[in-house]
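During the no-cost extension, the postdoctoral fellow (Dr. R.K.) reprocessed legacy sequence entries with the updated structure-token encoder. One reprocessed record is reproduced below for audit purposes.
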Amino acid sequence: MALAFAGLVPHSPLLAPNIGKEHRAQLGKTLEAYSLLSKNLVTTQPDAIVIISAHAASGPDWWNANVCLNYQVDLSLFGDLLTQGQWSGALGLAEELQNFLGQTEQLRFYSQPQLDYGTAVPLLLLGEDLKTVPILPIGYIDNQPERQAEFGRRLGEFLRQWPGKAALIGSGDLAHCLGANQPSGLQARGHKFDQRLQEALRQNDSQALLELSMDKANETGQCAWLAYLTLQAALNGQPGSWQNLAYEAPFGVGGAVWQWQPASAD
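Re-encoded structure tokens follow.
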């Protein structure tokens, strides 16, 4: 029926209430943007949410989808034993996507009920109103941006012909080297990387996104580039543009929230 919604979000554990605690006040722009993104997503009434996560299992020459009947939040890695959340799996969508992609963009399944934090943190922040929507977390292919973009193109093609309404979320943090304790040259390169990445998105420039240096991306410690590539490719050729809702880096890690705005029908 439609790719009804697309957004790009950060996933810092500090955004979670029981981890960030009083420090969340310094992430106010991001939290406000998450609230707006959630409100806009709820209005589309999605039948499934596909999440491209930097911390789902990656594959050396294929893509991995975490396919479960039910998922749970587990943030114990960050000392949070209190936060809970459950979602059901979009099992039918997963099987249909695997069949659609075939052997060219091979999608393999694994089953891990405890969600990776790149999936869990965004789902928690998107709120209670979306907890009944089935999800499908998918990871990256390792160090192959051109193939990741092609996967995104095929994913978008599939979701546009899928009979339900799908939301596509990309989860990743930008440069991790922006803190005052980092060497000044590395800080500058991190800021430049974030600016170039976001400007390419703002300009809807798929080629500029693809041409970013992998060495520079890796140097900054970012984990968002391939998510940006995937969603941009999924939407390539569709009328519309990206809207930035927030960007900040109070703890030395860049985090941005973007929403795709389809062009008006008239």
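The chain has a mean pLDDT of 95. The longest helix spans residues 184-202. The remaining legacy entries will be reprocessed before the final report is submitted.
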